[in-house]
Amino acid sequence: MMSSGSGISKNTGRSLPTQDVSFKVTNFASAQKQINNFQDATVGANRSNIGGFGFGARAFSGRRSFALAAIPKWAEGEWSDEIKARKFMVGGNWKSNGDFDFANKFPQDVLGKANFDTELLDVTAAPTYIHLATVQQKLKGKKVEVCAQDVSEFGAGAYTGNITAEQLADMGVKWTLTGHSERRTLFGETDEITAIKTKAAIEQGLDVLLCIGEVKEERESGVTDDVNARQLKAVADVLSEEQWGNIVIAYEPVWAIGTGLVATPEQAQETQYNIRCWLAKNISPKVAAATRILYGGSANAENAPELIGQKDIDGFLVGGASLKPDYLDIIKAVNDEKKKQM
Ligand code: PEP
């Protein structure tokens, strides 16, 4: 017997409207997998038949037991085990900081000492363009990779001051940021420009840390998810589904960047979960399951361990703390959490 006509989201506690869910008779194991892998699936079956959550399968091994899973229609399909397979990531953004001496010493003194499993974690550092080659050289043979902070929306030609995706690729740079809030708010980069830059980078073989996020007034007026959706849609409009494989999303509430005001784990989790739902609905469940979503905004060695314990936080984009030895503690926290999950 079904206990209710709607599914209750374990993440948000909100009800899913009946018309948005389909009820499926399934065996206990797959219902449980759906619950584990996708938080908006819930079991509405007579629990005495399945022996409760979690342990029922073992309790009833050898017997056929059924569950009724309420799955949002748009999320049907393969969320699969990719959640476990998502590699974590820590990206450092130096912004316009650091001189030649720092660019020479920090990679050796700090980044080169980062101790993490490259199977589980990507770690990058993004110096200014003028220090990119130096840092890259110093990191040769180390686990940390360099990342550009931005990329031109144009190709080669008369675009004074711009660095093209082709030039970055030619230097062996594998990563770039796009859409950082400082590019958007201080330099007037629109969602569309960010999207073109993102596509230009991917087409030259780079992986992109695509930054999105709301300003304080947007959070306060309750439109955070709409802002993220708008920023993502501009990118979705120019990318193929396959190209999402080269994207890591960095959710960075603008009010938390450089302010010391970190989002609570609940705020970050809820927003990042909603980003994943947007991907499922608008790109595909497969892309939603596979895409890494980092949190950025005053992340540091103290708050990283709790934040990284959230289901939809796959790492961090770090500004200020990436210029200090603390960066190693953040990397350690993320590496430890990923190891725990495996
Ligand atoms: C950033 O620059 O992307 C950032 C998150 O900065 P901070 O960690 O200093 O808030």
Explain this structure.
It is a single chain. This protein is of the alpha/beta class. It folds into two domains: 7-75, no CATH class; 82-341, Aldolase class I (TIM Barrel, Alpha-Beta Barrel). Helix content is 38%, strand content 17%. It has 15 helices and 13 strands. The chain has helices spanning 28-37, 47-50, 56-59, 82-85, 100-109, 129-138, 165-170, 181-186, 191-203, 216-220, 224-236, 265-282, 285-290, 304-308, 326-341; strands at 7-8, 15-16, 21-27, 42-43, 66-72, 88-93, 121-126, 145-148, 175-178, 207-212, 247-251, 293-296, 315-318. The strands form three sheets. Strands 6-7-8-9-10-11-12-13 form an eight-stranded parallel barrel, surrounded by five helices. Strands 3-5-4 form a three-stranded antiparallel β-sheet. Strands 1-2 form a two-stranded antiparallel sheet. It starts with 6 loop residues before the first strand and ends with a helix. The relative contact order is 0.13. The site of phosphoenolpyruvate (PEP) has 14 residues, from strand 13.
